[in-house]
């Protein structure tokens, strides 16, 4: 079967998400994309090029969602819903509970410089998205105007990463929900 470029990127993203950048071999990619190496190299250059395309698509998806949260009538409620959804993935989708960016960062020392740079850029994009939500929440009176948006965004990003990582280690949805509630209660009390 011949997949479009977008479908190929999405299928490769799943493999990278499941196995990490370092743990994914070209045979894994070939199997997922049902393409010969020559077709993959012609389209993406190499494994790094394909990963960067997947990372870009993943990051843009989260940034788009954060932008939608910032434009919602209740930005914090929208953000909480967004942060909760990956925590509830089924057993078969456990890999999706963790952030693809964080999963890849775990192999930091083994990553090519281009991917390290792209990961930093992705994290900065996410932080900007969290900051937009904080600013919108301040404008709507959900958060104190005295809160520093940059610091709150960095804190939220850290909580996002921590929750996504914890979600791979537990299936206890009630504990994860309690932690998420605490994150938002703490934020609103600042």
Automatic annotation (TrEMBL):
Q: Which PROSITE patterns match?
A: HTH_TETR_2
Q: Does the keyword Signal apply?
A: no
The residue ranges marked as DNA-binding region are 25-44
Q: Which domain of life is it from?
A: Bacteria
Keyword Transcription among record annotations: yes
SUPFAM superfamilies given for it?
Homeodomain-like (SSF46689), Tetracyclin repressor-like, C-terminal domain (SSF48498)
State the species of origin. Answer: Alteromonas gilva
Q: Where does the HTH tetR-type domain lie?
A: 2-62
From the Swiss-Prot or TrEMBL record, give the protein name. Answer: TetR/AcrR family transcriptional regulator
Keywords linked to the UniProt accession: DNA-binding, Transcription, Transcription regulation
The protein's matches in InterPro entries, at most eight in alphabetical order, are given as:
Homeodomain-like_sf (IPR009057), HTH_TetR (IPR001647), Tet_transcr_reg_TetR-rel_C_sf (IPR036271), TetR_C (IPR011075)
């Amino acid at each position: 079967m011949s997949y479009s470029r977008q479908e190929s990127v999405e299928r490769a993203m799943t493999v990278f998400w499941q196995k990490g950048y370092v743990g994914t071999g070209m045979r894994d990619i070939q199997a997922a994309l049902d393409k010969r190496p020559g077709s993959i190299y012609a389209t993406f250059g190499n494994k790094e090029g394909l990963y960067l395309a997947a990372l870009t698509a993943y990051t843009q998806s989260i940034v788009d969602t954060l932008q939608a949260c910032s434009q919602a009538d209740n930005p914090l409620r929208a953000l909480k819903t967004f942060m909760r959804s990956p925590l509830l993935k089924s057993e078969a989708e456990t890999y999706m509970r963790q952030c693809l960016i964080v999963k890849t960062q775990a192999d930091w020392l083994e990553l090519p410089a281009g991917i390290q740079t792209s990961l930093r850029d992705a994290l900065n994009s996410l932080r900007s998205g969290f900051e937009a939500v904080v600013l919108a929440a301040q404008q709507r009176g959900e958060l104190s105007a005295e809160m520093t948006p940059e610091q709150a965004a960095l804190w939220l990003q850290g909580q996002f990463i921590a929750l996504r990582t914890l979600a791979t280690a537990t299936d206890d949805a009630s504990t994860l929900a309690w932690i998420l509630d605490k994150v938002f209660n703490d934020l609103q009390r600042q």
